[in-house]
């Protein structure tokens, strides 16, 4: 098996599959595909086409990447939320006010964390990080109208949950 020829022959196909699934160019994923092809070349059985086998590997690598990206994204959201609220400072703060403010922030964070993930992400992006609806829509890959709808529903749920703070 000439590995250089395999790469040359399948390069565009692998690139296109990765781009189609991940919506981005990603040379690391391309390398991972070829590494898996190389490591598993002795497992290939000539029942189907070689191109089909590489295509399957490229699809699986891309899907695995998306799964791990979603998990990283969700854990990043939670950790960044915590840091965001920790960094908010009030110059006219007494120990009593700080305690009340911390309790209030904890209630708000708990309420946000209890939201469905699709509502939580738009609240975090638009209300905490200050993204526009358009930027948020691009980031989560959905229409602007969907972002607006999710913001509305999330705020409605939060208003009910946090009515004691109003």
TrEMBL record:
Residues 106-157 form the RNA polymerase sigma factor 70 region 4 type domain. It holds the Pfam family Sigma70_r2. Residues 8-69 form the RNA polymerase sigma-70 region domain. Keywords: DNA-binding, Sigma factor, Transcription, Transcription regulation. Gene3D superfamilies: 1.10.1740.10, Winged helix-like DNA-binding domain superfamily/Winged helix DNA-binding domain. SUPFAM superfamilies: Sigma2 domain of RNA polymerase sigma factors, Sigma3 and sigma4 domains of RNA polymerase sigma factors. One of its GO terms (molecular function) is sigma factor activity. One of its GO terms (biological process) is DNA-templated transcription initiation. InterPro entries: RNA_pol_sigma-70-like, RNA_pol_sigma-70_dom, RNA_pol_sigma70_r2, RNA_pol_sigma70_r4_t2, RNA_pol_sigma_r2, RNA_pol_sigma_r3/r4-like, WH-like_DNA-bd_sf. Belongs to the sigma-70 factor family. ECF subfamily. This is Sigma-70 family RNA polymerase sigma factor. It comes from Candidatus Scatousia excrementipullorum.
